[in-house]
Amino acid sequence: MWELIRANKRNSVLLMAVMAMVLLLVGAVIGLAVFGPQGALFGVIAATVLWLFLTLLSFSSGDQILLAASRAQPVTHDVHPQLFNVVEEMKIAAGLPAMPKIYIINDPAPNAFATGRSPEKASVAVTAGLLARLNRDELQGVIAHEISHILHRDILYVTLAGIMLGGIVLMSQVFLRGMFYSSMSSRRRYSSGNQGGGQAQIVLLVVAILVAILAPIMAYLLYFALSRRREYLADAGAARLTRYPEGLASALEKIATDPAPQLATVNKATAPMYIANPFKKKGQRRLSDLTSTHPPISERIRILRSMSQGASLKDYSEAYGSVTHAKNIIPAVALKTEEIRIREGQAQPTKEQKVQDRLHQVGDIMRKVNGFLFLTCLCGLKLKVPPNFKGDTVKCPRCSRALDLAAQRNAQHR
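Now predict its structure.
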């Protein structure tokens, strides 16, 4: 496992270096086109300052920005005890130095992601829809996948690479919009003088426009390529931690076929963080794998279900090769000999919960996250009081008893 982490770090450094070169190239070309021969240095300096600012921002509060953008809310053990127990189990199995913070996203679409600067300061966020639809084995598979991202140091890479990508896109968009709205008089000023100088300026502008258009595309492809690779590695880590590949395979299957609407808060910057592609636009599945944020989910499921001999990294690598007919996704140095037997699945109810029961569970989870008070009257009726209710007591609609809300509110804030 440590060999895999070291290889991951090397690949991250290489990718970050390439993206930094792309960012500086964009700055240099734009500076050269706009300000002339002396503008290249100015463009590089401007790109470096932007990169440093965004990098410092990502180190200081990048995870909180991503969580806030996803509208994730921190929760306590009382909201979902099973979720806390599963996260703690996977934290111990992975040997993480600290318990990740746990967040719930108030959305019925099943999905999850991890973020943070390091294994010591990491967070796991899951949607209410995920908690309502998965059994314990499936939830354990998803959490193990996210814990593997933390263990492999993917969470810092995603934050930094996303910030770098944002810097490249920002510089390109500012330049292109500036060119679009620039006046003819500005163009005449740049082309004043001899005709040769004017032609050279036009050539530089054309080159700058091409770089501004192609650089973000190149950066996106680099970002998505390594993001997809890390999804495979996190799947391998999840199978190893849980010793039950079918749990994650079944969870991915439910996520892929779930009819819930697309996540309300997802965008291009946060999409690669999720365990499955959160976009559900028409034609999304027909997009080229080259431009997708995630590997094909059907392929991931087939790989996991092909692990019949064991749950080690070597077993996953062999299953990956048999399904994709591609070279090993896991570095050879990480394929040490270890025997991890696949365990039996935990006993599940003989019948799936009815759709109405699952929707009811999603509603209760969302209400808990949003601060509703849950009271049970002596007559047996359960009341759900919204947080904006101002009274100190509430009347039971069945037996007319007055229920004290002050004590419940005090207990909730402890």
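Residues 195-242 form the longest helix (48 residues).
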